[in-house]
Amino acid sequence: MKTRILGKDLKVSAVGLGCMGMSHAYGPAADKQEMTQLLAQSINYGYTFFDTAEVYGTPENPHDNEELLGEALKPYRNQIVLASKCGIRFDESSSAVNKPLIPDGRPETIKRSIEGSLKRLQTDHLDLYYIHRIDRNVPIEETAGAMKELIEEGKITHWGISEADEKTLRRAHKVCPVTAVQNRYSMMYRDYEELFPALEELQIGFVAFSPLANGFLSAKYGKDARFDKKTDYRSMMPQFSPQGMEQNQKLIRYLTEMADQKNATPAQISLAWMLAKKPWIVPIPGTRKYGRLIENAQAAEIGLTDSEVKTLDQMLETVPMSEVFGGSKISKSSVKKTECKENWKNGKAV
Ligand SMILES: NC(=O)c1ccc[n+]([C@@H]2O[C@H](COP(=O)([O-])OP(=O)(O)OC[C@H]3O[C@@H](n4cnc5c(N)ncnc54)[C@H](OP(=O)(O)O)[C@@H]3O)[C@@H](O)[C@H]2O)c1
Predict the structure, then answer these.
(1) Which of 54, 139, 155, 306 suits 252 as a labelling partner, its CA being 20 to 30 A distant?
(2) Are 239 and 252 spatial neighbours (Cβ–Cβ below 8 Å)?
(3) Beta-carbon neighbour count of residue 263 at 10 Å?
(4) Are 50 and 19 a contacting pair, CB within 8 Å?
(5) In order of start, what are the domains of the chain with their CATH numbers?
(6) Strand 3-6 vs strand 10-13: parallel, antiparallel, or unpaired?
(7) Is the CB of residue 108 less than 8 Å from the CB of residue 348?
(8) Do 151 and 176 contact (CB within 8 A), yes or no?
């Protein structure tokens, strides 16, 4: 597979593998043996970029995904870029399938988390470590400072921010250069295109999560699609609701037409569209299936022209579209605002 550079020097496959759905948010966790085999097959096919997080798991096994990757990718560790995340936990008091997120960007939390992730991932360092959500009650300078220390200690080599905004990113980058943001980005969620000029200026890569709008843009889901209300976030995502499906009919039709013209699939066009936008955008679609893993990787070979991208953009600006899942609610932070302000004023970590 073709490769891309995130930040100044982090070389990754042009399409990465998002591994969350193997353990979390897309129904009960998948079979370990099958996923281990799938991960090995992905390496054979040229994937070198793997995405996980401390919190990707199930109520029974909250760190299922890191454990899976640790075991399955151990034989390939020196060939791959391993990315994980810290800095959130779920609000377990909620009965929602997508429980609200409680951000915690405190240095001591980050330092505790990395030890657990290294152990589960069976490695002595991570190649990319993100703060999963910005904790508005902890100055980003403190979070960035902790990441800087982890780099100095050799526990991570690069760091990033998930769901970053420009202002916070600039502040963080001053303390310790950021290699990548990991934000939601798909044909149905383009808000972060606003960030592109800043990313270009600062030489920061963009890792696109949920690049298929949680699978919807593959055009493989119809009105009869049913998802488990207890374990599958898609059961409450607006794009998969009967009304959403109805509203998105034209979008799916246009996307399918474009795919037919290019002898590709709608999923491939969705990925090729973002790959064509900037050379430092890397989508990380998730799948549990071998055929789709290959299909998604092949999107890197499609190469849409500027005029084809423009046509797709114009279509996206005018076609009717439902709302799309925008992520779980951010709940209260772990730290009280006043406590944090005081500590920041005194130059102390919270
Ligand atoms: N930073 C964050 O806060 C954050 C949030 C969400 C996700 N992520 C990361 O981003 C990765 C990807 O996001 P995501 O999994 O939410 O969404 P996604 O990649 O947009 O969609 C994944 C879904 O699409 C289906 N799919 C994948 N390729 C397909 C194809 N070619 N044809 C038909 N269906 C296809 C998969 O089903 P099958 O498994 O059945 O193929 C899966 O249900 C995650 O794994 C995770 O690593 C990060």
Answers:
(1) 306
(2) no
(3) 8
(4) yes
(5) 3-345 (3.20.20.100)
(6) antiparallel
(7) no
(8) yes
Tokens, residue 121: 């991932």
Angle, CA of 274, 66 and 237, to the nearest 5°? 50
The whole-chain average pLDDT of the chain stands at: 93
Q: Is the CB of 51 under 6 A from ligand 1?
A: yes
What's residue 350's pLDDT? 25
Mean pLDDT of 165-174: 98
pTM above 0.90, yes or no: yes
Active site residue 45: no
Tens digits of residue pLDDT in 309-325: 999 999 999 999 999 99
Active-site pick, 26, 45, 47, 56: 56
CA 155–ligand 1 middle distance (angstroms):
28
